[in-house]
Amino acid sequence: MKKSHLSESQIIKIIASQESGLSVSEICREHGISQATFYNWKGKYSGMNVSQLKQLKDLEKELSQYKKIVAELTLQNTVLKDVIEKKL
What we know:
By secondary structure, this protein is mainly alpha-helical. The chain has helices at residues 8-19, 24-31, 35-45, 50-87.
């Protein structure tokens, strides 16, 4: 998937400009995006402000760290169980 040339804070500002009264076609033409992209962004970022977005990113990062820890512990547990079964 192609990465956006706009940052997430810019995307939030674009969505806010639509909420303030500009038409979607004008916004898309001005920023060089398709209407489908705009509506995807609106579905993902609608109702957020920049601080909420930062908080969301921090939580996603923390969650990925927890998932990694759980995966490592599960692997260790499985290996230890296999070793114990082989000894018995």
